[in-house]
Write a structure and sequence with these properties.
Layout (H helix, E strand, L loop, with lengths): L11 H16 L4 E7 L1 H4 L11 E7 L3 H5 L3 H5 L4 H6 L4 H11 L6 E6 L5 E4 L6 H19 L11 H18 L7 E3 L5 H6 L2 E2 L1
Parallel strand pairs: 2-3
Antiparallel strand pairs: 1-2, 1-6, 3-4, 4-5
Helix pairs in contact: 7-8
Amino acid sequence: MGSWFNNCMPRIKDVKPTLSQIVHPIQEMEGIKSMYVWGSFVKNLKNPNFRLRDIDILARTRFHSGDLLAIDENIIKQAMSDEELENQGFDPQCVKFSRKFVELSKYNIDHWSLSSDRKLLHWGPIMVNEKESDEVNKEAERYAQRETGLTRKAINKSAESTRKNWYNSYCRYLSKYFENMPSGWYKTEDIKVKEIIAHCLEF
């Protein structure tokens, strides 16, 4: 397996050959119907040199949104038995999935799930709709440009250290925007599942 995940903003052609291997353990988990990649990876698939800020992975699950929304970072860090989780009102399989899925953060993966009641959820604070998300991401990119003097396009062929400076500035803006919001599953506004899946690639 390549070491693209150790690089800042890897190219699509670096990520593509091994992404399915990374996602495979999640695919095999109980409660998972299918796995997809979407977002900027899919939008720019024809441009193999496009550099990715992160990689959007979507798990279509058999879990209800209420069971997912009950899970936060504290729960997945605790080593509780299935019985203990059930006694506290948690679905053990849902907790196991969330824990395993979040471990993929080391590959700079952005975690999304579709619940059995057709809700789109994101691990970590998120804007509730696409319009707000686009606006905040653009503002983060403008902030990174002011900090580094480089546009998003200009860093595509830049050195690793330059990309890291730009990306760190981008992340600082988002961290400040979402500060004091705990990690966990967050629900977006009502969506149409067919439209989401139409813009995804299944593993």
